[in-house]
Amino acid sequence: MLLRRLIVFSVIIFIAVSWLSQSSSDKTGKNPLLKSKIVFVDELLAEKKLQEKVISAKAFVQRKDFNAKNAFFIDMSLPSGKPRFYIYDLEKDSLINTGLVAHGNCFEYWLEGRRYSNVVGSGCTSLGKYKIGNSYVGKWGYSYKLHGLDSSNNNAYERTVVLHSHSCIPESETEDDICQSNGCPTVAPNFFEQLKKIINASRKPILLWIYE
C-alpha cells in the first residue's frame, strides 16, 4: 500500500516538474530543474523495481522457509551516495528503513561505473539472492557470512563476501560517491546495528537480494 502511494506521489511530482521545466530556465538557457527531473525519474524506476522484487521475494521466502516478515534489498543501479539498501517488511508491505551501501571495486583503485563478477578473487559485487548466514568476528569486526543462491553469486562464501560495516560509509545520503569494497555489501556502523538486531532476532534465515 505504501509503495503504491509513493509511486503515485512520484508521478505527481514528476508531472509537476515537467510542467515547471518548460517555463523555467536560467540566463544561460539551461534548465535548472533538469537535475531534479532526472532524480525523480530514477526514484520512480527504483520504486517500481523494488515492488517487483518484493512480489518475487514473498513467494521465494515461503517456498524456501526463510523469514517471511523481513527481507533486505539492494539496488546497485542507484548512485552509491543514495540510500539504496532497503529494509523491508514483507507482511506490512512497507519500508522500515534505508541506508547507504558500498559496491565492489573489482580490485581497482577506483571503479568507474559498475562491473559484476562471481569469480573468486575478482573483488566485484555479485548480483543475486543471498541467504544471510552465521555471524563471526573477523577482519572487519562483527560480520555475517553470505551464501549465494543463484548461479551469478554462488561463489560468495568461497570469496568471503560478507555483510559488515565500515566507518567510511556515511550514515546519511551524500552528493558524493562513497568508498568502495572488495565485493562486500558494506554499510554504515549505525545502520549495521539495525540490521544486526533484525538478523539476530530471526529464527529463520533472512533474504538479501542484490540487483540492478
Q: How is the topology of this model organized?
A:
Blueprint: H1 2-23, H2 34-64, E1 70-75, E2 85-89, E3 94-99, E4 128-138, E5 141-148, H3 156-159, E6 162-165, E7 186-187, H4 189-201, E8 207-211
Parallel strand pairs: 1-8, 6-7
Antiparallel strand pairs: 1-2, 2-3, 4-5, 4-8, 5-6
Helix pairs in contact: 1-2
Notes on the structure:
By secondary structure, the protein is an alpha+beta fold. It has a domain at 64-211: L,D-transpeptidase catalytic domain-like (Beta Barrel), CATH 2.40.440.10. Helices cover 33% and strands 22% of the residues. The protein has 4 helices and 8 strands, in the order H-H-E-E-E-E-E-H-E-E-H-E. The chain has helices at residues 2-23, 34-64, 156-159, 189-201, and strands at residues 70-75, 85-89, 94-99, 128-138, 141-148, 162-165, 186-187, 207-211. It has an 8-stranded mixed sheet with strand order 3-2-1-8-4-5-6-7. The radius of gyration is 18 Å and the shape is globular. It starts with a helix and ends with a strand. The model is unreliable at 11-38 (pLDDT under 50).
